Each structure stands twice: as C-alpha cells, then as structure tokens.
Amino acid sequence: MWLQGERMTGALVAFCAVLAPAGYILYMLTLLIAARRTPVPRWTGEMLRGIGGLQVWSMLEVVMLGILVALIKIASLATVEPSIGMYAFGAAVLLFPMIMTSFDSRDLWQRIDWVDRETPAPAPPEASLDPE
After folding, report:
1. 26 Cβ partners below 8 Å, 6+ apart?
2. Which of 47, 106, 107, 110 counts the most CB atoms within 10 A of its CB?
3. Which residues have CB under 8 Å from 64's CB, separation 6+?
4. Is the omega angle on the peptide bond into residue 125 within 30 degrees of 0, that is, cis?
C-alpha cells in the first residue's frame, strides 16, 4: 500500500498489524519480568493502568479476517503459498488470547510495593485483562 501511494492506509495497517502487537508483547514481557521481582516495583502499577490502551490497537482478529477474505477472492487468480510470515501471524493470533486468559492483573496489582504501604483502589476497568 505504501508503494502504491496509499501512505496513510499503509501506515495504519503497519501500526495495527505489526507495531501495536509487538508493543503489546514487549509490554507484557516487561510486566512478567517485573512480577518475578520481590517486591514488585511500583512502576508496574502504572504499566497495568496503561495496558488497556495498547491492547485496543492490536487488531489481529480484524487483520486475520481481511487476509482470509483476500485469500478467498484471489484463489481463482493466483496461487498463494503461506510462508514464515503467515505462520508467525497465526501464532500471534493464538498467543494473544492465551496471554489474556492466563494473566491475572488483580494478583499483580495486590503484590505491588506501594510507597505508603497502602494499596490504592483497583485499576480502572479498561486496564483489566480478565475476560470476566
């Protein structure tokens, strides 16, 4: 898209399909590394508050549906051979729900070492990763 003059669309697709998911995975890795420390650092709470905003922009399901529609439409015109990129994208689509179901943000929130030793109110609902 970028090379065909659709720079804005190409930038949005690159952000939603590559940059936001990669940022989300790095964000979660940082949280998991922080969760292993004793005591859990206070900055972990700030990260827990902000993770909902990054998760919204990782629209892998929408991109996957677009890929499937494009593959069905192009099937009669060309031969498509999936390679490493498609397998990696499929793995990411499966990885995200696994992360969301196994990560307990409430437990991590309770373990954070707050300066005043008093746990503040729970994180806002949009920061919660639990499917409840």
Report:
1. none
2. 47
3. 89, 90, 93
4. no
